[in-house]
Amino acid sequence: MAITVNIYYKGVNGNAKKFTEEMIASGVVDDIRAEEGNIRYEYFFPLADEETVLLIDSWKDQRSIDIHHASPMMGKIAELREKYDLHMKVERYISDEGGFSAADKAFIKE
Q1: Three-state SS at 96
Q2: Order of strands across the sheet that contains 52-59
Q3: 1 touches 96 (CB < 8 A)
Q4: Contact criterion met (CB below 8 Å) for 87 and 2
Q5: Using one digit for the tens of pLDDT, what is the confidence trace for 62-73?
Q6: 98 has a pLDDT exceeding 80
Q7: What CA–CA distances, in Å, run from 24 to 13, 19, 20, 77?
Q8: For 53-95, what is each residue's pLDDT tens digit?
């Protein structure tokens, strides 16, 4: 049962993008991706909102998330969020282990 957390970081004057650039340049993103249980850690930029960045953060299970939240990386992330004065909206999803239905698959081109 994978858990995916979508975090929308919102700032002003391009701060959300600057935040992601520093997260990548500082090596924090690579460190998080290397953590046991991390499945995905990727940033996306919504076309309709230049002041927001979307982080899609997926983990194997809640235990993996708890270990990540207790890691030194969380302090670095919090420090950068404060530096760039970012606000967050968070969504949490649990994977559907049943997969896609036949009707759903009809609309998916692989």
Answers
A1: coil
A2: 38-44, 52-59, 3-10, 87-94
A3: no
A4: no
A5: 999 999 999 998
A6: no
A7: 19, 9, 6, 11
A8: 999 999 999 999 999 999 998 999 999 999 999 999 999 999 9
Residue 22 exposure: Cα atoms within 13 Å on the Cβ side: 15
Tokens of 73: 């990386």
Name which of 32, 31, 5, 26 is nearest 79 in CA terms: 26
User: Which residue pairs, CB below 8 angstroms and at least 24 apart, start in 102-108?
Assistant: none
pLDDT band at 105 (very low <50, low <70, confident <90, very high): confident
